Amino acid sequence: MIEYIKGQVETLTPTNVVLENQGLAYFINISLNTYSDIQALKNCKLFIHEAIREDAYILYGFSSLLERSTFQQLIGVSGVGANTARMILSSLSVQELESCILSDNVGILKGVKGIGLKTAQRIILDLKDKMGKSGAHLHENSALGVATSQVRDEAVSALQMLGFTQALSLKAVNNIVLELPGLSVEQVIKAALKLL
Question: pTM of the prediction?
């Protein structure tokens, strides 16, 4: 299973990127939010979701663990496929989506191409509790810089390797990084272990 791919940006469009890593070029589908995050970069790191079907092996890439986690929650909703989830994350930021779900705003979700009333209601019903529990990271992107974001991502990955769930790890790490943004990865992990 691929956790992330780090490499040189060979080609980039608003819907996909080709990353070259040690002679291998990976075609990765992305959202507009990820495109905005990486469009000025020559090298980048994308967190990967693999979609393996009988007729295809498709990679979806995200500039943050939070966006990948949200994508995975969306495709867990009945009737929401990977392309629909990517369309949602291209139309709304993670924070806007969470705000919309937590406030039962069906209208905003219905405004996304391909989302009807029933699907919008199902997304809100299925994800409201999950996002309510992890809502501590609503303002993650605006409050954290790129360096802090990298520290956060590495700390969350380490905690997951230690056996903690992604949601719990994200919540603990985001709380720590928002309160004490100057900590190293090791310090964030140690502080998170005291909370978990």
Answer: 0.69
**Residue 55 belongs to domain spanning:** 4-62
CATH number for the domain including 186? 1.10.8
Degrees (nearest 5) of the Cα angle 33, 36, 39? Answer: 140
Pick from 104, 69, 99, 103: nearest CA to 85: 69
Distances (CA, A) of 18 to 29, 43, 90: 9, 11, 18
CA of 186: how far to CAs of 131, 157, 168, 177, 182, in Å? 27, 12, 18, 12, 12
pLDDT tens for 37-56 read 999 999 999 999 999 989 99
CA 54 – CA 100 distance, rounded (Å): 35
- 46 with 91, same domain: the answer is no
Residue 113's domain is classified under what CATH number?
Answer: 1.10.150.20
Among residues 106, 107, 59, the alpha carbon closest in space to that of 86 is found at 59
